[in-house]
Design brief:
InterPro entries: His_Pase_superF_clade-1, His_PPase_superfam. This is Phosphohistidine phosphatase. This protein has about 160 residues and is an alpha/beta fold. The protein has a single domain, classed as Phosphoglycerate mutase-like (Rossmann fold, 3-Layer(aba) Sandwich), CATH 3.40.50. It is built from four helices and six strands; from the N terminus they run βαβαβαβαββ. A six-stranded mixed β-sheet has the order 3-2-4-1-5-6, sandwiched between helices. Strand 2, helix 2 and strand 3 form a beta-alpha-beta unit. Helix 1 packs parallel to helix 2. The longest helix is centred in the N-terminal third of the chain and has 16 residues. The chain starts with a strand and ends in a 6-residue tail after the last strand.
Length: about 160
């Protein structure tokens, strides 16, 4: 069995319309929600052996906060430029290439790719995957290359508005 945690970046700012989408920072709500979400991830014991994240500003900030909160070694966290605007198939291929000695991986990325990947792996359509959402899956596979449709089951689906 493998464990996969999918996390959508915290809420980003649209205050500067001239700023490239890749460079958008977190807004005030994102900055408020992020440490609370990271603390819940730690309380749930979702400590990955590897954290892969999009190198866009909002996902990098989200991933760094998670890494600090979870006390992850620097080498555990890897920026993957291809995760920016990635479709679920690209994310699936990324996961399928991970070494099998890893039992738990966390992805920090963007929608719709994250929601679509979670839906594909769990066999359940995720119509709502808000910012700072955490989707934890148990995967009924021995190796990452075995990932396939409906091979997993949702263990946790959490997001900030559930706690307000």
């Amino acid at each position: 069995m493998k464990q996969l945690t999918l996390i959508r970046h915290a809420k980003s700012s649209w205050d500067n319309p001239g700023l490239d989408d890749f460079d958008r920072p977190l807004n005030a709500r994102g900055m408020r929600d992020l440490p609370l979400m990271a603390a819940r991830v730690k309380e749930m014991g979702l400590i990955p052996q590897r954290l892969l994240y999009s190198s866009a500003t909002r996902t990098a900030v989200t991933a760094r906060t998670l890494a600090q909160t979870l006390e992850l070694d620097e080498g555990t966290c890897i920026a993957i430029p291809e995760m920016y605007e990635a479709c679920w198939e690209t994310l699936l291929n990324l996961l399928q290439g991970q070494p099998d000695h890893l039992d738990s991986i966390m992805l920090v990325g963007h929608n719709p790719g994250m929601a679509d990947l979670g839906g594909y792996l769990s066999g359940q359509s995720l119509h709502h995957f808000p910012t700072s959402a955490v989707h934890q899956l148990m995967l009924n596979v021995l190796g990452w290359s075995e990932l396939a449709e409906s091979c997993g089951s949702t263990q946790i689906f959490d997001y900030p508005k559930l706690h307000t």
